[in-house]
C-alpha cells in the first residue's frame, strides 16, 4: 500500500524570552517520522506540550520545520508548495464554532473556500455545496443558516463540510471531537468511518481519548516533549508499549 504522506526526521524549535534580555531555545519536535496511507487513521497522542499541535501546523504549512522533510504522494513539500496542495490536507479545529465566521451564512463560507481554491463557476459551486452538505447529513437549506443556529453536532458537520468540499486526501482532526458529548461524538465518529470507507480518506487524529484511538486508529504515535517514543500498529502500541512513559500514559487515562 503506497503512502499518501511520509514525514522524515521532522524537527521544530522556538526562541522564547527568558527575562528581559535573554532568550532560550525550546524544542517542540525532534526527529519525528511516520507515514500514512489512503483509508488509514494515525492517532497522535501525548500530554499537553508534547508537540502534537506543532506537528499538525507543520503538515499544513502554518509553520515551517527547522529540519526534516514532508513528502506528499512522493513529492517533497516546501514553502511554495502549500498554496498548491492546501486542498489535499485539510485541518479540522477543536472548536468548530470559533473556526466559523459568525457573520456569514454557511453557503457563503463554502462559496469562499471554493472561490479561492478552484476555478468552478457559481453554478458549479452551488452544486458542489449541495452535494457536500448532503454527504454530511445536512440539508441544502442549512446553507442559509448562520453558525449560531446549529447544534454542536451540526456545527462539527459544517466544519467537516468546509474541509471536505475541496476533496482532500487527508484530514487532520486536532482534538476535534473532544468538546462533543458521548452520543454526538459517536455520531461523528460513525460519520467519519463511513466517509473513510466511501472515499479512502486518511485521518490524522490528535487526541488523548484512548478509547477512541483504540476503536478507530490503525496506527498510533506517542509523543513526549517533542520526541517519538512509540510508533506502530495501534494494537501493538497499546498491548506492548516500548517506553515507560507510554506505559504510564496508557494507565493514566481511562479508556
Gist?
The protein is built from nine helices and ten strands.
- Counted beta strands: 10
The CATH H-level superfamily of the largest domain is P-loop containing nucleotide triphosphate hydrolases
CATH topology of the largest domain: Rossmann fold
What best-fitting shape do the alpha-carbon axes yield? globular
For the record, the CATH class of the largest domain is Alpha Beta
Helix content: 25-40%
Average predicted local confidence, pLDDT: 88
Termini separation (Å)?
30 Å
Low-confidence stretches: none
Q: What's the domain count?
A: 2
- Assign the CATH architecture of the largest domain: 3-Layer(aba) Sandwich
**Classification by helices and strands:** alpha/beta
H/E series: EEEHEEHEHHHEHEHEEHH
Share of β-strand residues: 25-35%
Question: Radius of gyration from the CA trace?
Answer: 19 Å
Largest sheet: 6 strands, mixed
Question: What's the helix count?
Answer: 9
Strand order of the largest sheet: 6-7-8-3-9-10
Descriptive report:
The radius of gyration is 19 Å and the shape is globular. With 255 residues, the chain is of the alpha/beta class. The chain has helices spanning 52-59, 82-85, 106-117, 122-135, 152-164, 182-199, 210-216, 234-239, 244-252; strands at residues 3-18, 22-37, 41-45, 67-72, 75-76, 89-92, 170-174, 202-206, 219-224, 227-233. A hairpin with a 3-residue loop joins strand 1 (3-18) and strand 2. The protein contains 9 helices and 10 strands.
Amino acid at each position: 500500500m503506497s503512502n499518501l504522506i511520509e514525514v522524515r526526521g521532522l524537527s521544530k524549535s522556538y526562541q522564547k524570552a527568558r527575562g528581559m534580555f535573554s532568550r532560550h531555545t525550546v524544542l517542540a519536535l525532534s526527529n519525528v517520522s511516520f507515514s500514512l496511507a489512503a483509508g488509514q487513521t494515525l492517532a497522535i497522542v501525548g500530554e499537553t506540550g508534547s508537540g502534537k499541535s506543532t506537528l499538525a501546523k507543520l503538515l499544513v504549512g502554518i509553520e515551517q520545520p527547522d529540519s526534516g522533510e514532508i513528502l506528499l504522494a512522493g513529492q517533497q513539500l516546501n514553502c511554495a508548495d502549500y498554496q498548491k496542495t492546501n486542498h489535499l490536507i485539510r485541518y479540522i479545529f477543536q472548536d468548530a464554532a470559533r473556526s466559523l465566521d459568525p457573520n456569514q451564512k454557511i453557503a457563503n463560507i463554502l462559496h469562499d473556500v471554493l472561490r479561492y481554491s478552484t476555478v468552478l463557476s457559481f453554478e458549479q459551486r452551488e452544486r458542489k455545496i449541495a452535494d457536500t452538505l448532503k454527504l454530511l447529513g445536512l440539508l441544502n437549506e442549512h446553507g442559509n443558516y448562520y453558525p449560531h443556529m446549529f447544534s454542536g453536532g451540526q456545527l462539527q458537520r459544517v466544519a467537516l463540510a468546509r474541509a471536505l468540499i475541496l476533496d482532500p486526501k487527508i484530514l487532520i482532526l486536532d482534538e476535534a471531537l473532544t468538546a462533543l458529548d458521548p452520543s454526538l461524538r459517536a455520531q461523528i465518529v460513525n460519520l467519519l468511518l463511513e466517509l473513510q470507507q466511501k472515499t479512502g480518506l486518511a485521518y490524522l487524529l490528535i487526541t488523548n481519548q484512548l478509547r477512541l484511538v483504540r476503536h478507530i486508529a490503525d496506527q498510533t504515535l506517542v509523543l513526549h516533549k517533542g520526541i517519538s517514543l512509540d510508533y506502530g500498529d495501534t494494537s501493538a502500541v497499546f498491548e506492548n508499549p516500548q517506553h515507560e512513559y507510554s506505559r504510564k500514559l496508557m494507565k493514566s487515562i481511562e479508556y
